[in-house]
Each structure stands twice: as C-alpha cells, then as structure tokens.
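To: structure desk
From: M.T.
Subject: fold request, one chain
Message: Could you run this one when you get a chance? Sequence is below, nothing fancy, just the single chain.
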Amino acid sequence: MTEKFVQTVSSVNYNKGLFSLYFVGQDQNSMANGVMAESDNDLELKQVVHMPASGFMYMVSMIKNMLEDPRMEAEFEKLVAAGFLPAAQAVENEAEEALAEESVKAEEKAAPKKRSTRAKK
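Reply: Done. Structure tokens follow.
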C-alpha cells in the first residue's frame, strides 16, 4: 500500500453505480522552490479513487458523525481562530455566491433560443 498526500478533492462524479473522487494537490517541485498555489489552476491531479455507492455513503456517514462530534467542533474553532480556516460567515457567503452563479448558469441553459425572423418581401 502507498500513502499519498493531497490538498483537496476537486470533484466527485457518479456514473453507473460508482463514485469517482478526484484528488488534487500542489506541484511538489513548485512547493520545494517556495512557490505556493494561488488558485485552482496551480493544482494538479494526484489520484482518482473509484468506489461503489454503498462505500461512498458509508464514508459520508462517517464524516458527518465526525463533524457533529463536539471535540471536532472545538478543533475547527481553533483552526478558525488561528486563521487556517475561514470563519463560518465567510463560508456561508461563498456558498451563497456559488449557488447564485449556478442558478444563473442553469437559467441561461434553460432559456429558449429565440429564432430570427426573416423579412418578408
């Protein structure tokens, strides 16, 4: 077995009963030279993990239980206080902005195309 460090999951896809988790991280050569990632474009795909729906749902349940644990809540509060994680209000604002952007994109896709009318002679 090999262990791999990743910074985050860039996306989760579901297709035909399998979930695919795409893990990304910073280029190690850049990190070694002191260059930190400034945007998502600076991240590279590190690994893809595929799992059945039952395993994915079990993982989600374990994470949910962990997040509801008061000890974990205290850890998150420490990370927010230290500046390693954004405050809850900032996270909520980002989530609201992302939802608003997605709804605008959905409306643009759903809007019927207007047909041009030909001038009658």
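Reply (cont.): The mean pLDDT is 81. Let me know if you need anything else for the meeting.
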